[in-house]
Amino acid sequence: MSDELSQPQLRQTFWTGDYYNEGSGKDGLFDKLKEECGVFGVYRHPDAASLSYYGLHALQHRGEESAGMCVSDGGEFHYHRGMGLVKEVFDKDIMASLVGDIAIGHVRYSTSGDSKLTNAQPLVFKYRDGDLAVATNGNIVNALQIRRELEQSGSIFQTTSDTEVVAHLIARSPKDLVEATKDAFNQIVGGFAFLVMTNDKLIAASDPHGLRPLTMGRLNGAYIFASETCALETIGAELIRDIEPGELLVLDKDGLREERFDHGKHRKALCAMEYIYFARPDSDLNGSNLHMARKRMGNQMAMECFIDADVVTGVPDSSISAAIGYAEQTGIPYELGMIKNKYTGRTFIQPSQELREQGVKMKLSAVRRVVEGKRVVMIDDSIVRGTTSRRIVNMLRDAGATEVHVCITSPPFKNPCFYGIDTPDRKELIASSKTIEEIRQEINADSLHFLSFEGLIEAVGGHNSSDPKGGLCLACFDNEYPTQVNFNGEEKFGCSC
Hints:
Rossmann fold, six-stranded antiparallel sheet
């Protein structure tokens, strides 16, 4: 190998941040956080590929840059991956080639510099016992350290995805697949929901804190796994239950075995942003419907902060439920004060400088007849950098709103996520360096209010838990991480649970 392709220089091209999958947190013209992926699995259904297609379509909001599917007929794998939306990646001919009754699928949102086909999942490998496919939702905090150790002992990596680390750990183990998978999961730290498939087995597992959601359902005797229950609903499957933290389920010719890879006592810490923003409103988490939970966030916001106004509106689509809740609690009329253009999507035409400056108008339009001459309460789920909030406030003012009061149905977002959400560097998070009053001035609002920790926990039903955090990971708000994480080479220990 030449000096130009030496190992250290290769590593520099694998990732651009301080840890795997550190990204920019940007959504084109929108300043919104991004989930990294969604997974879907089928065990023993003759139409496994078709079910996976519709399941992935239901999970499209969790990743729009690549999609993939691997299907086993009991003897060999048939798989396809591609860049783009599910409907763009799979056509009739491709679907006809995906024959089998076991399948795992994946939709992915990549992070900094890693939007390329080699990283599309499921990742598929040949190893000593046959074929192996792996798909995950989440992020492995210590992937870089493990990868370096594996490379030093001879492993050759084909992707920049941290998911490949797990495949190498499984393949190098002398134990059988199930025990090797348990050992691999015990070596990694982070938030993850994994689906692992061989020619005749399917394994599903959740990290010891349950940071990323994973559910199990049944359909005509087949087992179905999905990141969200909305995917089960789409194919007509019955929800059985959520996969528990640290649990590992094995499905093979002997049926379903419920096992564990982690036997420690860890605090359950489901990502709060799933409730606040990411999950679809028709999904359920921990038995709680997301639409209703978000309505309760709006109710709580109203009880914590009543504003004398003429109309309530929510930033579409994630904040509409909370806006309805706020309106119901206060008696102030709810109106569609903003309309989202659903067809901007991924564009290959760069907007003009004028539109770039106005940015948000490409995706959102104010309904002038609704807001003109009115005192408006604008409900949104979070503020990241503040740029989008400022643009929306100014858009409402341009449409004639006399006052714009901003209510955020989450606490101030101050800290980066290490568990599968693409967040910017801490210094780019406006709440990490500015007071609420300074943020209010920055976004040009008449008033600015954030939901309290207690209000958020109450809204999602966490008040019934003995855990003061309500079974949630709130690290992006309170800087208390449920696992050990790494900040620029300095070890940080979270809440020590």
